[in-house]
Amino acid sequence: MRANRAGVLAAAVLWAVACREQPRASAGQVPAGGTGLHRRDELLLAAANVGLPPGVDSATLPDRNSRGARLLMTYCAQCHDLPSPLTHSATDWPSVARRMWLRAEWISPSLGVKVPSMSERYVLLGYLTTNALKVATAGLPAGRGRDAFMTVCSRCHALPDPRVHSKEDWPTVYLRMESNMDRMKVARPVGSEGTDILLYLQAVAMKR
Questions:
Q1: For the segment 142-169, what is each residue's pLDDT rounded down to a tens digit?
Q2: C-alpha atoms less than 13 angstroms from C-alpha of 180 in its C-beta half-sphere
């Protein structure tokens, strides 16, 4: 929900910037260097990005030389950091992608934001859903930490399948998720919850 609200705010800000007549430079509102936007607009855009998940390096994208990966880099990194396909589940990506395409269509052409063609959208959506977050099924094994895992980790995204990572990899992934929670202003697990979650994930993780 936080990420969705931040996305809506970003779209609203971009729309306001695109539709506003560029004001003359004056005290407290001077053109920002190299962007063509005034300081107020740059601050609004910066605020709109607060709470968005951090982007990824293009080198880490799955099948990065595929057409889908290239389209992701071309279109989806125009207004925000490059998103990981793991940001959403295959069930959620269609509605998220459609929302992004509508926003891109609403933005004034003067800002130079490129909009994918219909055929490109099919390829891009196929890439996102194929490499999406693998979600947990209803049959999660019992154990200490399961309830905390289900509660905490579903705050920002669909509940991931614990088997997508190995026991050795989960600590690194878990630390990255805590860093993301800080960035998105989401409360971290409290007390022993964090330890319980990590131990649970390692106990039911993918076996190498």
A1: 889 988 988 888 887 788 888 888 899 9
A2: 20
